[in-house]
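Why does this matter for the project? Reviewers at the last site visit asked to see concrete outputs rather than summary tables. In response, this paragraph embeds two records directly. Each consists of the residue sequence and, immediately after it, the corresponding structure tokens. Nothing has been edited or filtered.
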Amino acid sequence: MKKYTVLIFILTSFVSCSSRGVDANFQIGQKSITYVDKSRDRPLITEIWYPTLDTLKENNTSEKQREPFVSIETIPDASMPNQKFPLLMVSHGTGGNRFSLTWFVEKMVKEGYIVITVDHYGNSSFNKIPREFLKWWERAIDIQFLLTQVINDSKIGAKIDISRIGGVGFSLGGYTNIALAGGHVDRYSDTASDSGLPPEFPETDEVINFSTDSLIIASYNKYKDRVKDERIKAFFTMAPAVGFGFYSNEQTKEITAPVFIVAGKGDQNTPIQNNAQNYHQLITTSELHLFDENVGHYVFLNEGTEFGKKILPQLTVDHPNVNRKEIHEKTLEMAIDFFNKNL
């Protein structure tokens, strides 16, 4: 580790701040933009969250009374300090959306990170297309495309420290990050065909044979070996899914970046034996943290409001012995420590 003089350290801290937000009281700026990957005819609705020193104004909370999840306070189109920040690319769970992990976004932006979240086309709560639910590998291509767009953006790109880019994902977004790290899923594995459909899968009269569908096969053959992105230096995954498609060290031998995996032992959607623990055994650069047997899958979503607990109990209500906010706080401590060490 390099040693710095006291004077240089003080000057560096004053001018640029650190990723921990030292010497700065950041609020959260927010911009919305839709990028279109024309090569795949794929619109990607994107939220850009970033540190700002602008002043937060009081918001009307009455409009939020019927929201199912607790939201965060942001400043739309706020200014950005004249410095560079590390970047986190976030991938939501299957059928989720770019607002699913704002509890994570809020803390990381205040720590001094730019955070990008996206609605994966056809696999978000606002846009459900059955076939897109089955093309897991294209999510990694979404993140690659978005990363290129934001880096090249004349405003946001100028504020990104491109040497310090991390990936974050929940559930299917956890798999997405393992793919971006260099993990290659086998859609033809014996257990893949028996894995069933996620509970978020949309109702449809269309009959799709996962094994023989020509569009799914064509997508897999085209993109399955293009998933790794060397620009992303570290990956933090929560309750990663699609472990049924991984069974060999050959599938993960390209993963050289650090990967942190966190999950609950009580996860019934992506049981840890076949997912979190399986990934940890196959990825030599991984760390694993397991919460106790009362902690389930959806604990990594935003906290539910009282209204949300009434209309979406499956997503918002945890075991009586589980405090979702405390799980979030512990998860954030691990994430901050992980990225401070690896970015």
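We now turn to the second protein, recorded in exactly the same manner.
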Amino acid sequence: MKKIDKALVLDKSKVIIKNVVVNHNYLFSLIALLLIGAIASPNFLSAANLIQLVRASAIIGIIALGMSLVIISGNIDLSVGSILGLTATISVMVYNGTGNMLVTLLFALALGGVLGLINGFFIGKTHVAAFIVTLATLAAYRSLTVQIGSGGPLLINNDFYYAGLRNIGYGVFLGIPWVVWIFVLVTLLVWAIMTKTKFGRYVYAIGSNEKAAKLAGIKVDSVKVLIFTIAGTLTGLAAFLYMARFGSVDTATAGRGFELDVIAAVAIGGASMAGGKGFIQGSFFGAIILYSINAILNAFGVSALLTDLIKGVLILGAVLVQRSLNRQKEA
């Protein structure tokens, strides 16, 4: 009996280890980067620096949570950077007009949701490919942003009003920045939606096999609309945090290139770019890993001009690793 028990324990251990390696390999990447960071800088593993890394990754990370739903469903959203830019731009105008943080937050969430809804409508209801729709809205939303701001920065023009908003961007609670608290809470909320609700199961089902999902009675078109609406709403939240952090929005550059960072974070976090597989916590850690890489490159004196090259390599590498691990899992 003891030999049988030992064999069962050994088999279970192997299954657990294989599951971690295949589905949560981002944890190994994070550990490796932390060790490299410790070599690059003796203060890299300090609590203050680690909290700063999470804080720096929060805006991209929150958008990545929404992108996770999109990618798991087998789609892509190239417009998130432009959604952030347009939402942040108009939100500054709303804040300047009202001086009310709650009104501005609700507006940013609503506008981000509407912009995402537009994507979802064309993708879900008219069945145009997500790549084409979001490529079009990337250009359209960016053009609107530049037009509204006349290509220049929009400033929060009341220092008294900005004091409260700035506290969201830079303030702390129990020694931890408000932005980090928001990032963690939103991650837990999206994780609960994806693991504890029918909607979450529908997202995975659509990404795995859309035709089978339709045959199973899932309203695929409506679910797609909701997926992109949620992604837009989370981008709206990120836009609010963006303006809270910087106190202004440069309409020519705000959010530009964010789609690359967001997709990189989701890919590094282990989501399958083919859809049907991925973990919300993977995107959370993927965003942190991405910013850890930036910090390490800076510590080693690598030119900032090479950052996008490295991100591109990371996306390709993450996809290749995921494919290899999936084949091992199926074997």
